[in-house]
Specification:
Blueprint: E1 22-23, H1 30-34, H2 46-50, E2 54-57, E3 60-64, E4 71-73, H3 76-91, E5 99-103, E6 106-107, E7 110-111, E8 116-121, E9 129-135, H4 144-154, E10 158-162, E11 167-174, E12 177-180, H5 191-195, H6 201-207, H7 209-212, H8 217-227, H9 236-255, H10 273-290, H11 305-315, H12 326-338, H13 351-361, E13 369-371, H14 378-388, H15 399-407, E14 409-413, H16 416-430, E15 436-438, H17 449-456
Helix pairs in contact: 8-11, 9-10, 10-11, 12-16, 13-14, 14-16
Length: about 475
Amino acid sequence: MSKKAKLNSGETDNGNRATANTQPAASITIEDILRGTSHALTIFKPKTIAGLSIFLKRGKPYLTCYASGKERPAKPEEIVRQLYLRMLMDDYGYPAERVAIEKPVQMGSNVHDKPADIVIWDKDNPTAAYIIVECKKPKRSDGLEQLKSYCNAEGSPIGVWTNGGETIHLHRRDPNYYQNLPDIPRASQTLSELLDERWTLDDLAEHNVLVKERTTLKKIILDMENLVLANAGVDAFEEVFKLIYAKLYDETQAAQGGKKKRYLQFRVGGATPSEFKQKINDLFDKAKAKWPGVFLDGERIDLTPEHLVTCGSYLENVKLFNSNLQVIDEAFEYLSVKVGKGKKGQYFTPRHVIDMAVKMLNPTWDEYVIDTAAGSCGFTVHTIFHVWGNEFTADGPTREQADYANTMVYAIDFDPRSIKIAKALNLIAGDGRTNVYRANTLDPRGRQDEVKVGLRDRLQRFPGDPQKDR
């Protein structure tokens, strides 16, 4: 994206000459108008931003609306709207005759004081709203509830909220139930076709919001908490952890299909809430079987079907396996901190400090590693990746990599939730085995047999040690 995209003078975007009271604006940039937030326009292509034509009129910056041809003040929110209009028309193929700008919204017997920013009319009913778009200037985060009220009032099945850096696509299934969409339909595509699309890992990589919108898994979990989990009557940590565990399994299965492509199952699509819950519980059960020791055999997902669909729609466009597990590590760290580690006098080492420490230690393939206050296993996981050469994909570790993680890396912590996270990360890295134990490092008297057996071969014996022959 070009931060210094020049605002062209004299000629409007559709080729028409500007009016006589316009003047050159060569010294003004988009960054000047957006006051340093132009870098937040990450959902738009650089050529789309560079092609935005702005001119001075009576000393103020204006632009020509891409859909209507009318001149409008080039305010930050208007810039976002025009860029999104270009995307709707050029990339999604919606013609100008299906586009309305600032459409009044009837709210009962009154007209809302703020019109809808963009409305796409239904193909077969040119007076019915098909998509309503709410645009905000960069960095703004409000307006989602306003968008929902517009969709309810107009009966629109699709709503879009964007600030140029983040986009939320919503499918209105009924007035009180909105489902996140991976995208909006193109002009040549129906909503049902979009909902029923079968996705591969390649599709997921192409639409991965962690890359496309430069967001984080932590931010997505925060959105889920604000929208659903805070009022769902469940343990947010446990439910998010279960969903991530099930999705990790789904991605590994899709990656290991070989020449026969496997389709991803962790997708809401056109499934009913009950159907989707059954599908996710099946994935969760299979994940527990593949990576045992993290959840109990009888544990199930406790979210209601409706809440699960909402959470699933947030996660379905996230590709969890990346070049390494840092994105998962960050989210797991957040979840652990949230459940109150600081209140117990336990604190996580910042990840950049862990990276520095691991690089200074420079562990090798033939060296054992143990963290006796492991938390969520930041040190052990980063050590594993360091030894591996910082490589990890959805295909899983090589046999040599798995053997290293299985036999050379150990961790101990007393907090049960930290151990659950640590086991999950190490099980994935170690391809099914882990040396993570729950114990009090400072008090060996209370260690369970599992811990004693697991650590026996790694303990140094000293003359006169009463435990030597045990």
